[in-house]
Amino acid sequence: MRYEGKLYRPPSEARSYILQATIGCSHNLCTYCDMYRDRTFRERELAAVLEDVAEAGRVMPGTERVFVADGDALIMDVPRWLTSGSLRAPARAGLPARVADPL
Ligand code: SF4
After folding, report:
1. How far is the CA of 5 from the centre of ligand 1 (A)?
2. 87: which residues sit within 8 A by CB, 6+ positions away?
3. d(CA 44, CA 31)
4. How far apart are the CA of 93 and the centre of ligand 1, in A?
5. Is 74 in the pocket of ligand 1 (CB under 6 A)?
């Protein structure tokens, strides 16, 4: 698993594979949060994200959930996710995929 920067794992995701699709937070202004202050927000190269998914399917076949990070990964364009097949990629790699509003 490749991950740039300090990894923050929510307690509810203790057993999840953390997939870094974006780096940092697109907002990065909440006064109570300094998790991503040291990073400039950007999307990771899709090829690298899909490589991580494929690797997770090989080395962590028992994984039951994938948590997509970083701070605001769902800001990514839905067409990018859908046309690239990246929402289906975890299933192809033997990992479950689910999109849910975290709030
Ligand atoms: S990660 Fe969440 S809490 Fe932290 S700055 Fe970004 S939006 Fe705010």
Report:
1. 15
2. 81, 97, 99
3. 26
4. 30
5. no
Q: What mean pLDDT do residues 68-89 have?
A: 68
Q: Which residues of 58-78 are buried (b: 16+ CB within 10 A; e: fewer)?
A: eeeeebeebbbbbbbbeebee
What pLDDT is recorded for position 103? 40
Give the amino acid at 15: R
Phi, psi of 73 (to 5 degrees): -65, -25
Averaging pLDDT over each range in 32-36, 65-69, 88-92, which range is the top one? 32-36
Query: What single-letter amino acid sits at 1?
Result: M
Percent of the chain with pLDDT strictly greater than 70: 75
Ligand 1 atom index nearest CA of 70: 1
